[in-house]
Amino acid sequence: MAAYDIRVFGDPVLKRVAEDVTDIDGDLVDVCNRMLDAMYEAPGIGLAAPQVGISRRFFVFDFGAGPDVLINPVITEFDGEWEMDEGCLSVPGLSWTITRPKRIHIVGYDIDGNERTIEADELEARLYQHELDHLDGKLLLEYLDDDQVKEAKRILRERLLASGAAPQRSGGLQLP
After folding, report:
1. Is 76 helix (H, G, I), strand (E, B) or coil?
2. pLDDT, tens digit, for every residue of 114-152?
3. What does the domain layout of the chain look like in residue ranges?
């Protein structure tokens, strides 16, 4: 089974709030395996369902302990601040210094339907926050000031034009 293509800035699915997962079954396991293949191929450490065109609340990740899934995640506590250069597979090749909470407590479900509770800090906390942003229809560009957004869109537009594709007027930029 082939890995999914990762959706990029301009794809409307990335701006939608994803719906809760109601059934954890074999189909979801297959989807997660294909997402993990896409994530590793990219390469990345996390990939949310909307990034592959699926508007559901789950993401796959590998923070060094092997592949994992978090379904219907919710951050219940957060503390502190931590700045770090952060990129995104859906805004390829660009990164910015983003401030996020340093520590979080996140709850959700694993692929077997068991409740998970995770205490995370620094990079691991950032991973979960970043993927949860995707589930809420939010991209890194929303953390930037107006000048940074303008520059990012200029770079993305130039890349698009260099690829021979044309920008879509109604949906923003559509990168190949």
Report:
1. strand
2. 999 999 999 999 999 999 999 999 999 999 999 999 999
3. 12-162
Catalytic (active-site) positions = 131
What CATH number has the domain spanning 12-162? 3.90.45.10
Q: How many residues does the chain have?
A: 176
**Would the pTM of this model clear 0.85, i.e. be above it?**
yes
Amino acid (one-letter) located at 5: D
Using DSSP, state whether 135 is helix, strand or coil: helix
pLDDT per residue as tens digits for the range 14-43 = 999 999 999 999 999 999 999 999 999 999
Which tokens go with 100? 């996020």
Contact (CB, 8 A) for 106 and 126: no
Q: Which helix (H) or strand (E) holds 26?
A: helix 26-41
Q: Are strands 103-109 and 91-100 parallel, antiparallel or unpaired?
A: unpaired
